[in-house]
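Box S2. Input/output pair 1.
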Amino acid sequence: MSPRVPLRKRLLVRLLSAAALIALCSVAATAWLAVATVTSALREEQGQDLATDTGILARLSGYAATHPDWRDVRDEVRALAARTGRRIALTTADRTLVADSAPSRTPLPPRPAATVDPLHTDTYSEPGAQLTGIDPRAVGPFRLTSEERATLAALAGKEKSCYDRHGIRVTVRTTPRGRPVLVASDGTAPSPGYTADCDSGPLDSPTATEQKALDGLQGLARTCLDRLGVRLGTSLYLAFDPSGTDPVSRLLLTKYARASGTTAQHTVQNCVLTARRAQLAPYTAPVAELFLGVGDRPTAPRFDMSPANKAKVAGAAGLVLAVTVAVTAVVASRLVRPLRALTAAARQPPELHVRVPVTTRDETGILAEAFNGLSERRERLEAQRKAMVSDIAHELRTPLTNIRGWLEVTRDGVVEPDTALLSSLHEEAVLLQRIIDDLQDLAAADAGTLRLRPEPVRTDELLQQVAAAHRVAADAAAVTLRTDVSGTLWLDADPVRMRQVLGNLVSNALRHTPSGGTVTLAARREGASAVIRVADTGCGITADELPYVFDRFWRAEKSRSRRTGGSGLGLAIVRQLLAAHGGTAEAASEPGAGAVFTLRLPTAPSPDGV
């Protein structure tokens, strides 16, 4: 009796639960999307779009960073309002109107949207402002003169030409203070380490204007430090940054700063930042309040759903949920049916090798096909196992029976132990040993413990040795055994195992080649591989039997005669030994035209380097 599956773990229940959850989430997501879309539309209509607000703030902050006052900002405000469709108003800190895109006497919104202060940009996202809180476009006394710009531009062009000659793509970017900077394709400064002759010292050095501004900034910072009682062990030095992102972003020699016996690096940095703001203040517009809105309605109304809309959403959600559950129940039932058939087939006794019908082409059908394939392979392996046990028993019984019989009659004095008898017994023992060795080799290969002793091996010598070892057998069978080697090929292989491989193939070919036939051992180079072929002119192998030639105990001729029966292990050993050498073995044949066994192995360099 099959175990009872809990209700919550049944596939049908899980599918229904998943479908219900998906449907509920889909409906909720659709409702949320609709609400969010309407709310977003209302907010955009009422002037609450955050991206537009940020763009307006960035534009006005840039104006304040490059102008000492708000005198000419009205045209800028009107242009921004016309482009964005927004009401834009600027006032001083005491709410004195500076500029307004709305008609005069239009009331201001109750609260400002932002503060425009290029020297304190804590809520401003302009690149570079996060470093110090100062708008990078506020350069003040660091702005270069026209002569300095022309000089630096010429140096930048010369340096760019040098990089171009070295195949390095760079572009010239102009910083807010007018200094040209070379930028590589990845956005960083090009490294002069590869092209030291392109490094222009004057281009990275401060100009007279910049040095004067740095000196003034240093004096303001020293005044701040003296006021706070901070003593420096050496003079304060402000590093110069030619990129223009932050003229004094780095401090040197601050480790000598002391205040009450403790390191005062943070105090030094604060004083430098305060000095920068004091130095830039005359060149930037005063702090202003920014008001944004549409007409006289500064805030967007809160979106709320009416009871009727809530009922519609709930009804639609319920309908979609019901339809989804019904459809899922039908689909799930069809999915569960073949799974139940698979479960029933899997519980049958293994010896029955039950198959299941394949009724669909979806994942369940693929699973059914895989199950049927597994049953077929299991049935085939079971048949091979039984045949293997029978073959092993037969192959071992025959020589053991002969040895036992001759020993018994010798013991009883029926025959004398002459040389012929001993030779016959020795031959049977050798046959028995060969079968056991073959089985041991296959077991070692299966267990991954097959040991190889590779060394440089010449293919022509290898083929000659194998041919010489089988010359007597070939002459006895009236079969011509010849070799054909093109060039000198070297293998990094175990010579004993390779002779075993080729010996198995040659022995197999001699058994199946009639008198007057030919067995050929040939070697060629094909790319980076050495290809060795053993071809015969025997009876060949049919197309149906060709895929099984390397299976264990397979024989083209099912006869168990000593001449053509064999043990059925030779070709299986060939495949295992080739795999251990990193090679492959293939068989091709046509009935009546012989067979060709092809071995492919990686070549090795000649030991003497030739």
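Box S3. Input/output pair 2.
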Amino acid sequence: MPRTDFPTSAEYHADAERRAYDLLNSQIARIDAALDFLKLNRSRVLPSIFTGIHTQLVGMRNRAEGFLVMPDHGGATAIGIMGANGCGPKITALTESVDFHVNKATDYRALRDAHPASIAA
């Protein structure tokens, strides 16, 4: 797809390299934060859920690192695969699921402590 804001192809590809680098580093940072939070709260998450989320996050991180070591950081290909039309929404969903599963246990415990009679019945 031609871009009108870049007069030459070289400028477009040079910008794609920078944008890919920024995207991949931000994705890796988000994944690392989710992995750290998941590992920190491992006892609050079911083992099967922990394993599934952890495996998917590590896979996404490895994919991003694979593009990062390419000569131009993957350029437009990395932006397409790891961006908003590729794995970006999956990474967002995985990081949100970490929050959901960790906080679900907390919410249940708070509900149980607030209304012990309604849960026991």
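Caption for Box S3: Residues 9-40 form the longest helix (32 residues). The chain is about 80% helix and 0% strand.
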